[in-house]
Specification:
The complex is a heterodimer of chains A (about 150) and B (about 130). With about 150 residues, chain A is α+β, with helices and mostly antiparallel strands. Chain A has a domain at about 5-90 and about 125-140: Pnp Oxidase, Chain A, CATH 2.30.110.10. Chain A has four helices and six strands; from the N terminus they run αβββαββααβ. Chain A has helices at about 5-10, 50-60, 90-110, 115-120, and strands at about 15-20, 25-35, 40-45, 65-70, 75-85, 130-140. In chain A, a hairpin with a 5-residue loop joins strand 4 (about 65-70) and strand 5. In chain A, helix 3 runs antiparallel to helix 4 (about 115-120). Chain A is globular, with a radius of gyration of 15 Å. Chain B has a seven-stranded antiparallel beta sheet with strand order 2-1-5-6-7-4-3. Chain B has two helices and seven strands; from the N terminus they run ββββαββαβ. Chain B has helices spanning about 50-60, 90-105; strands at about 15-20, 25-30, 35-40, 40-45, 60-70, 75-85, 115-125. Chain B has one domain: Electron Transport, Fmn-binding Protein, Chain A (Pnp Oxidase, Chain A, Roll), CATH 2.30.110. Chain B has about 130 residues and is α+β, with helices and mostly antiparallel strands. The chains are: A alpha+beta (about 150), B alpha+beta (about 130). At the A-B interface, strand 1, strand 2, helix 2, strand 4 and strand 5 of A face strand 1, strand 2 and strand 5 of B.
């Protein structure tokens, strides 16, 4: 089971999915929310296919995944694991991402960022699910517990 | 490589992200307070507490970062190569002062603590989606 304490940040945090090529060059891509399959300990990240190319190519080549996500409160986590597949997003996942993008747009708007600028960040709906099996979870919230591995399974 | 167009994204107004990997190929992705402009071909990152990133860079100098222009939300991807660390320099002092300001604004005073200014060579810089 993926720890309960990470679920809010998984759904509502801004995330970046990272990977490395066989020759140790890295890449990451923006993620617009994520869903969890607790039975199988997998996470599906909601990605934009036109941005995810290099990150996905690496994952397909090496299998390794890092997923960092955090809330505005600075609460943050990093999941590490093994790439499984890409797939289409479900209607429920697309609705979840839409809610996420609206919330981010509101936060950025409250910071004085123009709506047309905000749309560059969250104005395009994700069109790709990237699923990985979670193997390790690390607390990344700044402070004394940053970097500590969370008990899992 | 770095031009005036990119400078707003190097002011620390919006977080940046960095991905490194170990010699064994295990990636690590984390957020950073600021990517700091050094010159047209170099940037500096604040080394605070992201120890895995530091450990990875000792094994493999390649890194990938994303910076955001807070005015336009234009994002840029940077392919980086770690060059050296500074702990006693004008760059370190400037970054330390700015980091304290960011910490104060974000409620992280006493938690953000600059250990070193890590200088990277910028190998490429591309607008996201280009």
């Amino acid at each position: 089971m993926i720890p309960e304490q990470t679920l809010e940040a998984l759904a509502n945090g801004f995330g970046h999915l990272g990977s490395a090529s066989a020759d140790l060059k890295t890449a990451h891509t923006d993620i617009l929310s994520a869903s969890v399959d607790q039975e199988n300990d997998t996470v599906t990240c909601f990605a934009l296919s036109f941005l995810a190319g290099p990150t996905l190519d690496n994952m397909k080549a090496t299998g390794r995944v890092s997923y960092f996500f955090g809330l505005m409160s600075h609460e943050a986590y990093q999941f590490k694991g093994q790439f499984i597949e890409t797939r289409e997003l479900t209607e429920s996942e697309l609705a979840q991402s839409e809610q996420f993008c609206k919330a981010i747009a509101e936060i950025l708007g409250s910071m004085g960022i123009a709506p047309e600028a905000t749309m560059k960040l969250v104005g395009t709906a994700p069109d790709l699910g990237i699923t990985f099996k979670v193997e390790n979870i690390f607390n990344q919230t700044p402070g004394p517990e940053a970097g500590q591995e969370l008990p899992f399974n | 490589m770095i031009t005036e167009e990119h400078l707003p994204a190097l002011q620390g107004m919006f977080p940046s992200w960095i991905t490194t990997c170990s010699a064994a190929g295990e990636p690590n992705t984390t957020v950073i307070s600021q990517v700091w402009y050094v010159d047209e071909e170099h940037v500096a990152l604040s080394f605070q507490f992201f120890n895995k990133t530091k450990k990875n860079l000792a094994e493999n100098p390649n890194a990938f970062a994303t910076i955001v222009n807070p005015g336009t939300m234009a994002m840029y991807n940077l392919d980086l190569e770690f060059d050296h660390s500074e702990t006693d320099s004008e760059l370190f002092d400037d970054m330390d002062m700015k980091l304290e300001a960011i910490a104060s604004m974000s409620g992280m005073s006493g938690i953000f603590n600059l250990k070193a200014a890590d200088v990277y060579k910028v190998k490429s810089l591309k607008a996201l989606g280009s």
